[in-house]
């Protein structure tokens, strides 16, 4: 019997990580696409070679690692270059996901995939969208990443509009308020599924 899967997604700085961190404390297995994406850009990995080939060694630091801030500035200024990066990394990332799923034993798995709707991959599961008002999203991003308003807006606009994601999602969890409100919403949706904490 295949495990049930819930995909956690949202927009940049809407609070996906906060939701996922809390879900992990409840004992559910959770796969983090961002963490795997960071591994993809490490020297020696296949996506690293692909990225360096397409963006040149100008994106490398002296120790041979990728200058992630420089790469981010490049891809957030060009849809075409962002697609090149995704083409280099996404197949590898989803291959890692398939391997992870096969190893899991519990009946319910959570997959934290921030760019789920921006990729061409479809997963058989329920999608939970972590949502937030755009002004809150903007302020969080500026505070978290030390960006200018223009830089923050470029990152928000590089993703699918939240309105379009709301139309696609199975469950919308508003995270415009406090963490306590977010946790309560998560519990409510778990209870609706007949779920409780996986903690023993």
List keywords for this structure.
200 residues, alpha/beta, Rossmann fold, five-stranded parallel sheet, 9 helices, globular
Describe the fold and architecture.
The chain has two domains: 110 residues, Rossmann fold, CATH 3.40.50.300; 68 residues, no CATH class. It is an alpha/beta fold and 200 residues long. The chain has a five-stranded parallel β-sheet with strand order 2-3-1-4-5, with helices on both faces. 52% of the residues lie in helices and 12% in strands. It has nine helices and five strands. The longest helix is centred in the middle third of the chain and has 25 residues. It is globular.
Concise account of the structure shown:
By secondary structure, the chain is α/β, with parallel strands linked by helices. It has 9 helices and 5 strands, in the order βαβααααββαααβα.
- Rg calc: 18 Å
Helix content: 40-55%
CATH first level of the largest domain: which class? Alpha Beta
How many DSSP E strands?
Answer: 5
Structural domains: how many: 2
Order of helices and strands: EHEHHHHEEHHHEH
Please give the count of helices. Answer: 9
Q: Quick check: average pLDDT?
A: 92
Low-confidence stretches: none
SSE map:
Layout: E1 4-10, H1 16-25, E2 30-32, H2 33-40, H3 46-55, H4 68-75, H5 79-103, E3 108-112, E4 126-131, H6 134-145, H7 149-157, H8 162-168, E5 171-174, H9 179-192
Helix pairs in contact: 1-9, 2-5, 3-5, 6-7
């Amino acid at each position: 019997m295949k495990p049930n899967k819930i995909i956690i997604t949202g927009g940049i700085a809407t609070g996906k990580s906060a939701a996922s961190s809390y879900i992990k404390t409840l004992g559910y297995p959770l796969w983090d696409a961002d963490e795997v994406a960071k591994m993809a850009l490490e020297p020696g990995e296949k996506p690293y070679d692909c990225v360096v080939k397409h963006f040149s060694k100008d994106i490398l630091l002296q120790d041979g690692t990728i200058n992630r801030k420089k790469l981010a500035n490049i891809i957030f200024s060009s849809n075409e270059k962002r697609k090149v990066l995704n083409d280099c990394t996404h197949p590898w990332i989803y291959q890692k996901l398939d391997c992870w799923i096969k190893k899991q034993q519990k009946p319910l798995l959570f997959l934290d995939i921030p760019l789920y709707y921006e990729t061409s991959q479809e997963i058989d599961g329920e999608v939970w969208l972590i949502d937030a008002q755009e002004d809150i999203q903007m302020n969080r991003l500026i505070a978290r990443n030390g960006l200018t308003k223009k830089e923050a807006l470029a990152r928000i606009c590089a993703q699918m509009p939240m309105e379009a994601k709301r139309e696609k999602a199975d469950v919308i969890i508003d995270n415009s308020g406090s963490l306590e409100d977010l946790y309560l919403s998560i519990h409510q949706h778990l209870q609706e599924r007949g779920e409780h904490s996986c903690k023993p």
